[in-house]
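Appendix B, example 12.
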Amino acid sequence: MKKAFWFHYNKPASQAAGCPILTVHYEGACHLVESIRCSAPIETRIRKMQPRCVMAGKGTVRIEGREAIIT
């Protein structure tokens, strides 16, 4: 069953890790990943609080190692 998800660049985590880190929000949890493979339709969403701009859609998120796979 498709559920809402959204993701964004995470600057504080990226600075701490020394490499780009993205945060994927899905089913009430946030997952820190290094890459995202997404085949679900996504669109930008402007928010009133931080992060101001995110990519969002509906699908199924699976975390494999440091990668999120979104279908």
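Residues 3-70 form one domain. The longest strand covers residues 3-9.
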